[in-house]
């Protein structure tokens, strides 16, 4: 009597479908574009105003603060908790500043 041996071949992982790969690539590109847009906007925010008779220190400090908050919100995808952490602020402090300066946390949403 002849015995047959059974060989078990481990299953190989199935490659992701083309649709899944495409979605992943699109998400990565979208993330990259968002990061690049944020970087370009941050570069334009560095411009210093002329210091003359019309210079208002407190207004300029406020504008700088607004730019920092908006940059942090862009970097964190609109998350106030993450933006506060990034800016080393309490979440309640950031929220109060968002309301004071009427800064939108996400596109189409305002405080």
Share in β-strands: under 5%
Class from helix and strand fractions: mainly alpha
Order of helices and strands: HHHH
Query: How would you describe the oligomerization state of the chains in this entry?
Result: single chain
In DSSP terms, counting alpha (H) and pi (I) runs of 4 or more, how many helices? 4
C-alpha-based Rg, rounded: 25 Å
Overall average pLDDT: 82
Shape: elongated
Q: Count the beta strands.
A: 0
Helix content: 55-70%
Segments where pLDDT lies below 50 for 5+ residues? Answer: none
Q: What is the terminal-to-terminal distance?
A: 83 Å
How would a crystallographer describe the biggest sheet?
none
Overview of the structural elements:
This protein has helices spanning about 20-45, 55-75, 80-85, 90-100. With about 110 residues, the chain is mostly helical. Helix 1 (about 20-45) runs antiparallel to helix 2 (about 55-75).
Defining traits:
111 residues, mainly alpha, 59% helix
What's the layout of helices and strands?
Blueprint: H1 18-44, H2 57-75, H3 80-87, H4 91-101
Helix pairs in contact: 1-2, 2-3, 3-4
Short description:
With 111 residues, this protein is mainly α. It has 4 helices and no strands.
């Amino acid at each position: 009597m002849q015995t047959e041996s059974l060989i078990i071949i481990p299953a190989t992982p199935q490659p992701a479908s083309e649709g899944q790969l495409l979605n992943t690539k699109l998400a990565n590109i979208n993330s990259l574009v968002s990061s690049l847009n944020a970087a370009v906007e941050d570069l334009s925010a560095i411009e210093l105003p002329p210091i003359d008779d019309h210079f208002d220190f407190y207004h300029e400090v406020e504008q700088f603060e607004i730019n920092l908050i908006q940059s942090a919100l862009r970097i964190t995808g609109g998350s106030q908790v993450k933006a506060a952490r990034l800016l080393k602020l309490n979440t309640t402090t950031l929220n109060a500043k968002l309301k004071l300066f009427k800064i939108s946390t996400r596109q189409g949403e305002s405080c």
